[in-house]
């Protein structure tokens, strides 16, 4: 079983844009969720993934992911067989000092939200703090993708 250890940040500026190495469009939906776990389906490019995540402890949680046929994901998306609003975003990969920040620029119901994520090997792993990185929001549950599917960013205002 894998473990996801992830820090999340708001952005202080758009200066990161000049360092984008690659951008990936994605749609993700939640097929099921409880206080202890969530089942997510993600469609991106010519690939699709089914992911089961456990509840967070600090910034860590269990994560099990497998690639599934894109046609499987497409059928679920087209039939609307998911529990909450789809989360639509473009993920920009930005390398910084041996780390890769995943900057998610949300669209549709979450338009206007831009969040940087950084996966780490351990919770106490030191990481770079580029000038464009803003406040850490790892502990703010509103910014979790499941929360954004339940209560989209555009409804916060």
Automatic annotation (TrEMBL):
CDD domains: CYTH-like_CthTTM-like_1. Residues 2-150 form the CYTH domain. SMART domains: CYTH. Coiled coil: none annotated. It comes from the Bacteria. Gene3D superfamilies: Hypothetical Protein Pfu-838710-001. PANTHER family: SLR0698 PROTEIN. This is CYTH domain-containing protein. It comes from Hamadaea flava. The lineage of its organism: Bacteria, Bacillati, Actinomycetota, Actinomycetes, Micromonosporales.
